Amino acid sequence: MADPLARRTPAQLAAVFPDRVVPFKQHLLRDLDRPAPLPSSHRRHARRAGRAVEIRVGDDPAGQLDEWVELYSRTLRDRSVAEFARFSRDSFAQQFAVPGMLAIRAVESGITVSMTLWLIAEENAYYHLGASSDRGYELGASYAVFEAAFEELGERGVRYVELGGSAGDRPDPDDGLFRFKQGWSNDRADAYLCGRVMNDPLYRELSAGAGADWFPAYRGERVESGGAAADGAS
């Protein structure tokens, strides 16, 4: 998927990816230089959570790896999470080592109840993942974390924050996470799925008999025959 913050047109993308450029979903953005009034529900939850938790910011999230894994395991238990997002502890350890990774967490009585992960690249930042404990959900701690995150990112020179879109492989305005992120956004950008065939003879051989609606076509054949749907969601 092309980075929505690159703001490239389909024609520009097609010059680099001649075999596949299709609209995917709209992603929600936050322009930190523009006013972004919050919905009343977001303001109320953020105020309530802000009175109950302490916000801590860390450029070295590796120190919170165990806390994060525990929080994320709750998400895996309580939600329908696609297989490709079921990261292992070792995977998270590698992700936490990526330059620009920032962890922002809410702490109550010395215990982390909510945490979000952000990736910073110059004036752009990307929301990666978030997770909360049962207590964090009770407090609405994620609202306080997001409010603090935008303030912190702005102080670090970030202009645009990419919040992602709805869950799944198609737009869903009724998705709860989408509505949560929508309340923080003040802009949108189109996301495109792009592809380029590097070995045309081999690709034609692998895709023989497959339909043309999927890219790569041979993955579509696997999904239609009962293969892992996660392959096609990437």
From TrEMBL:
SUPFAM superfamilies: Acyl-CoA N-acyltransferases (Nat) (SSF55729). It comes from the Bacteria. Residues 43-167 form the BioF2-like acetyltransferase domain. This is BioF2-like acetyltransferase domain-containing protein. It comes from Naasia aerilata.
